[in-house]
Amino acid sequence: MAFDYSLDFKIIDFRQHPELYRVGKGEQGVLLVEPYKSEILPYWRFKTPEIARESSEKIYEIFLDYLEKDDFVGADMARKFIQMGYTRSRRYANHKSGRKYKKNSEDSNSKKEILPYEVDPVKAESAAIFKAKWVEAKTNEKYQELLAKHKQMYELE
After folding, report:
1. What are the structural domain ranges in the chain?
2. In the chain, is it the N or the C terminus that has fewer CB atoms within a 10 Å radius of its CB?
């Protein structure tokens, strides 16, 4: 089931209402779902490999803590932050500005032009660090069990 962007994220506490949470695809909702966003975001960094390692390890600890508490929504949000650490650092590894597409002037209907790759090995290393933790999180046995249970209970459509 798709992530539901129609919810009033400013007032919903997803710890109290996990039935409203939808996994969606990839990183959908990562910066919306509270209180998890506020609990995880302060630790999300990827500027250097050292920072990425510290960040990914801390967020993975948070992920495991949520699993220990059978808090699927929290675990999924931590997994999404780890995934976002990978995708953002990968984008900066490929494009120095962090932008993938060239800004088009007036014509919004024209095809977006992808900026040339400018590989940054430091950001690429940060991406690899986050990717390893992301794979570890998404393949975690307990996470997989809670994911299946959440989908069975709440994502029936």
Report:
1. 18-101+113-154
2. C
